[in-house]
Amino acid sequence: MNTLSYKTISTRKEDVNHEWLLVDAEGQTLGRLASKVAKLLRGKHKPCFTPHVDCGDHVVIINAEKINLSGNKWQQKEYKWHTGYPGGLKSITARDLWKKHPERLIEKAVKGMLPKNRLGRKMYRKLHVYAGAAHKHEAQQPKKFDLNSFK
């Protein structure tokens, strides 16, 4: 009798092929963009996804200065941190952060959607965000990726 084998394939880090993807943030909403980019960095769009292996791709995001936030988030959304000194709680609104460093809005949103462990930190290092249309990764020949067709 011929038996079928249904073995679960677990991907190893040596077997993963990391691609370079180019994403244009112009006209995109911050949260929706960040969740899709987090999936790309994690590798959940690939059939060989394994949770404990870095299966994701390198993602280059351009035009970060042209990102949208819905509602009153430009004035109401605050990013807080503590300096470590007594009374050292600091905060900045999304509008002020966007004026100083527009790429940090996307970086903070994506980082919050990645795992909080050493694998998540490794995935985060594959994110490259640029405020304008120019980037320094032409040598890697990133493929243009359309987020509107991505679920």
CATH architecture of the domain at 18-69 and 100-149: Alpha-Beta Complex
Task: Tell me, briefly, the overall form.
Answer: globular
Strand content: 15-25%
CATH topology of the domain at 18-69 and 100-149: Ribosomal Protein L13p, Chain: A
Q: Which bin fits the share of residues in helices?
A: 25-40%
Strand order of the largest sheet: 5-2-1-6
Mean pLDDT: 95
SSE topology:
Elements: E1 20-24, H1 30-42, E2 58-62, H2 73-76, E3 78-82, E4 89-93, H3 94-100, H4 102-111, H5 118-124, E5 127-129, E6 143-144
Parallel strand pairs: 1-2, 1-6, 2-5
Antiparallel strand pairs: 3-4
Helix pairs in contact: 1-4, 3-4
What keyword list fits this structure?
single chain, 151 residues, alpha/beta, Ribosomal Protein L13p, Chain: A, four-stranded parallel β-sheet, two-stranded antiparallel sheet, 6 strands
Characterization of the model:
The protein is of the alpha/beta class. It has a domain at about 20-70 and about 100-150: Ribosomal Protein L13p, Chain: A (Alpha-Beta Complex). It contains five helices and six strands, in the order βαβαββαααββ. It has helices at about 30-40, 75, 95-100, 100-110, 120-125, and strands at about 20-25, 60, 80, 90-95, 125-130, 145. The strands form two sheets. It has a four-stranded parallel beta sheet, covered by helices on one side. The termini are far apart.
